[in-house]
User: Which sequence fits this backbone?
């Protein structure tokens, strides 16, 4: 799926957050969105997912204006920070995944993804008993269930250790190699070793810059 963003601006009330942003991403691209706290990274994602309403004519998915778009299962999304995540009733990992699936997803698809994310052995564990790193993997599996074309990950490594981070980035890269478009949001500087194709930098003054990565040189 092609994502075409044409001169997007967005404000909360009078507070302008995104200014004249234009981006084209084709299927299989890997966009890193970086910037300090509060520069508008999550706001941008919410525009892309239709949570923040944008002006018609500013975001298109395969030439369909976002205001007419209705194939949202093409997106997989892992939101920012689930530190305070708590289910009010006991539910296991498998149960959560089965209620999160559309009818095209089979039990075998779910098991394959659990295995790929190396959390096969915790499938019958209560969600509330998982560590931050395990929970994150469960949410990635959940985001992948509907076989999305685009996977969006907001600050995915904030609460996980180095080893889990490496596993995480490797998994993202594998998914990207399978042809899934990746949009990865981070405020950390640990991006040099990532194999991204495009980078969007958001600044404190709510300006932004979008570039294609120059693979030959340094950042
Ligand atoms: N619903 C909202 N209403 C009003 N202002 C908001 C709302 N959501 C975010 N903001 C403000 O918009 C600015 C950008 O917030 P945003 O969450 O997009 O930043 P971010 O780059 O994701 O930051 P972080 O790295 O901390 O996650 C901040 O000043 C924030 O306070
Ligand atoms: Mg954010």
Assistant:
């Amino acid at each position: 799926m092609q994502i075409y963003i044409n001169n997007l601006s967005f404000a909360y009330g009078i507070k302008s957050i995104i200014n004249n942003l234009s981006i084209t991403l084709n299927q299989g691209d890997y966009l890193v969105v970086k910037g300090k706290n509060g520069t508008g990274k999550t706001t941008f994602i919410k525009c892309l997912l239709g949570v923040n309403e944008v002006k018609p004519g500013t975001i298109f998915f395969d030439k369909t204006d976002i205001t007419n778009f209705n194939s949202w299962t093409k997106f997989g999304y892992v939101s920012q920070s689930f530190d305070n995540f708590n289910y009010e009733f006991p539910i296991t990992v498998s149960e959560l995944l089965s209620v999160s699936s559309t009818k095209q997803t089979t039990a075998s698809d779910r098991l394959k993804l659990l295995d790929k994310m190396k959390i096969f052995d915790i499938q019958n564990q209560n969600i509330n008993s998982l560590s931050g790193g395990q929970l994150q993997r469960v949410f990635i599996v959940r985001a992948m269930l509907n076989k999305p074309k685009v996977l969006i990950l907001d600050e995915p490594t904030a609460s996980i250790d180095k080893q889990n981070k490496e596993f995480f980035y490797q998994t993202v890269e594998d998914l990207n190699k399978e042809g899934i478009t990746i949009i990865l949001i981070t405020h950390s500087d640990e991006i040099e070793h990532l194999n991204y194709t495009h980078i969007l930098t958001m600044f404190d003054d709510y300006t932004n810059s979008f570039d294609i990565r120059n693979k030959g040189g340094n950042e």
Observations:
- Strands lie at 3-12, 15-25, 30-35, 59-61, 64-65, 75-78, 150-154, 181-186, 198-202, 208-212.
- The mean pLDDT is 90.
- The chain has five helices and ten strands.
